[in-house]
Design a protein that fits this description.
The complex is a heterodimer of chains A (302) and B (105). Chain A is mainly alpha-helical and 302 residues long. Chain A has helices at 2-19, 23-28, 35-46, 49-62, 64-91, 96-100, 106-140, 144-192, 197-207, 224-232, 245-255, 260-267, 294-299. Classes of the chains: A mainly alpha (302), B mainly alpha (105).
Chain lengths: 302, 105
Amino acid sequence: MFLVFVVATLGITKWAAGKTKTTADFYTAGGGITGFQNGLAIAGDYMSAATLLGLTSMVYFKGYDGFIYAVCFFIGWPIILFLMAERLRNLGKFTFADIASYRLDQNRIRTFAAIGSLTVVCFYLIVQMVGAGQLIQLLFGLEYNIAVVVVGLLMMVYVTFGGMTATTWVQIIKACLLLGGGITLMLLTLSQFGWSLDNLFSKAIESHKLGEKMMAPGFADGRSGLRLLAVARPALRYRRPAAHHDALLHRAERQGSPQVGVLRHRLHRPVLPRHHGPRCRRRSPSSAPTPPSSKAARSAAS
Amino acid sequence: MSQENNIQAKIRNNPKFAELVGKRTRFAVLLSLVVLVPYYTFMFLVSTQPQLFAAKLAEGGVITIGWPIAALIVIGGWLLTGVYVSRANGEFDSITEEVLKEARK
């Protein structure tokens, strides 16, 4: 069955490769994609392994605290649209390196942009590959390492030969599948609870380790206050999330930072008993019971 | 090419162009603020005053007000992109067309 999917998507890639003739084609599908299709493809990009597996498991483990991460996720998009989209399109260039180097020293800026992009992409890819590998292992029974390698090779083939057209169409198909599957899953789940969100949440609270506390912020994790501020304000260096309470304090003391007073006050707030966190849980997605929130159910595909 | 420079100069001198740029910039900044200010307020409140979000929605229920508030922020961002796109496709695009037509004359 895995082979069926692989062959089908390779077929799309081959068809798209036949249509790709110019640079414009390669990067933007030559304008052959309508606005709606493009929007669907972008939505498909968003509903990647990180969202599907990562966000749902965050909500599952941490309750409301995990849900806040989902909010962060969606806020970046309008900002890009308002501040950057028009200017980029007016310029007529396609990649970030092109745009940044338009009026500046071509070589240096391009190198810098490439290093930056590759760094970000590397970290992002780790998450995606883990997700993809786990999914393939789960669905098709391949061993994890083999699954990761196979997925990586396939992706390289898709993008190299298909360019943007193939990628876009694959993303469109993925978006439709995920939306359809997710909505079906949500309707089925709600129908089990008599169409009442309240019932769903009550049952979730009963079976979850945190109980009632997961409905409100700040209880799943004693450090969540600091970490959330860190997520929301990445520019402030001294708020980087530390591996351990005391590490942050020691670091601040060593650097003689004036923020130590503030940090000390924060860290000595009464800390509620925390559970061990995702590191202790290595269950594969199949053995996890239904995620407790309907929003999580909506973003998962069966 | 001097023909291109000609068109560019005409565009830049056209008062409608300045009007377009001004309107668009103000609108974009306004909408960005409308998105960012509630978001950062929400983040700040959630991390420093989490008990504010623990109030129940309805008597006897279990859902707290925190969930709808977070959902509203997401949906609000989505609606605002709709607002921007509708204004950009309507007003801004028509001004752009006028400017281009006059520049090509």
